């Protein structure tokens, strides 16, 4: 069985502001759990009940039925163990990281290295004389975003990606696992969190 995603060892504002590291963490977590969900679920089913392996156990094939109909459903208890020990904890770790970094992005950032430079650009822009009749480009000014604003943009994108990935993963889990109730992944994760308390 796969292992759940481990939380970052150094969850600090610097971790969040290094958006490459933040994105890599989220991407690797999604790749190991969500992107390979079919492989992870297939690994839960014992491929052969004979020991040693008997080739006749795989000799019968019915190509007239779609493969999704011939797949053996994953037993209820095995599904529950996978969801509660791998999938939901991995989702929870990613949610915690995104929540923490969102709080960093919305907090004041006194250590912003570009703060002085941005303030100087804003002062120069306020002193500019704009006459668009003489120079139609004189009104252009593109203020630079602070690193907190850039982080907030990255987190908005990552939240959208997270919702898409979880919806897709949950659809596959519902299709393949016995005992998974009809509902959204949000309801399932909330139920898991409440049962954990």
Question: How would you describe the overall organization of this protein?
Answer:
This protein has 197 residues and is mainly alpha-helical. It has a domain at 13-43 and 72-109 and 146-195. It has 8 helices and no strands. Helix 2 runs parallel beside helix 7 (147-176). The longest helix is centred in the middle third of the chain and has 31 residues, at 76-106. The radius of gyration is 25 Å and the shape is elongated. It starts with 12 loop residues before the first helix and ends with a helix. Pfam families: MIX23. InterPro entries: MIX23. This is Caffeine-induced death protein Cid2.
What is this structure's SSE topology?
Blueprint: H1 13-17, H2 19-32, H3 37-42, H4 67-70, H5 76-106, H6 115-127, H7 147-176, H8 185-196
Helix pairs in contact: 2-7, 5-7
Which features would summarize this protein structure in a list?
MIX23; 8 helices; 197 residues; 58% helix; 0% strand; single chain; Caffeine-induced death protein Cid2; mainly alpha
Low-confidence stretches: none
In sequence order, what are the helices and strands, one letter per element? HHHHHHHH
Number of strands: 0
Mean pLDDT metric: 80
InterPro entries: MIX23
Region (Disordered): 48-72
Biased composition (Low complexity): 48-59
Protein name: Caffeine-induced death protein Cid2
In a few lines, what is going on in this structure?
58% of the residues lie in helices and 0% in strands. The protein has helices at 13-17, 19-32, 37-42, 67-70, 76-106, 115-127, 147-176, 185-196.
């Amino acid at each position: 069985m796969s292992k759940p995603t481990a939380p970052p060892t150094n969850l600090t504002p610097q971790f969040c502001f290094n958006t490459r590291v933040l994105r890599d963490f989220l991407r690797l977590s999604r790749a190991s759990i969500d992107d390979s969900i079919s492989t992870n679920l297939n690994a839960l089913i014992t491929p052969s009940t004979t020991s040693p392996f008997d080739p006749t156990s795989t000799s019968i094939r019915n190509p007239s039925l779609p493969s999704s109909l011939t797949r053996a459903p994953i037993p209820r208890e095995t599904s529950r163990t996978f969801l509660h020990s791998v999938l939901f904890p991995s989702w929870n770790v990613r949610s915690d990281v995104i929540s923490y970094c969102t709080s960093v992005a919305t907090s004041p950032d006194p250590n912003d290295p570009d703060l002085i430079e941005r303030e100087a650009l804003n002062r120069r822009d306020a002193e500019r004389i704009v006459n668009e009749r003489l120079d139609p480009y004189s009104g252009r000014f593109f203020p630079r975003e602070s690193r907190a604003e850039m982080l907030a943009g990255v987190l908005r994108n990552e939240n959208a990606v997270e919702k898409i990935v979880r919806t897709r993963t949950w659809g596959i889990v519902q299709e393949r696992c016995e005992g998974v109730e009809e509902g959204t992944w949000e309801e399932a994760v909330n139920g898991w969190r409440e049962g954990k308390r």
